[in-house]
Amino acid sequence: MDLEFIRGDIEQRRRQIARQRKEILDLQRAGISTKSAEELLARMLGKLDELCSERDRLVGESRRKYEGKDKFILGPQIRIGAKRS
Length: 85
Hints:
Residues 3-30 form a coiled coil. Keywords: Coiled coil. The chain has one domain (3-62). Helices cover 66% and strands 0% of the residues. It has helices spanning 3-30, 35-62.
């Protein structure tokens, strides 16, 4: 998956989680059982954690290292021969 796609998916899921939490509060105020809604929220949070882990892995892979060393190059990556816009 593309890094930008994963970032967009994470943001969308965070909004869904916020809506789900609000719905749980509404159900609690109404005195209705929230067990199934809380289970759904737990699954949503688990999927979000998976996506965040995948994003972090992709970000780590995209970092460049100094040749022959385990140090990462910090700052913007300048690619020789890349067209600038």
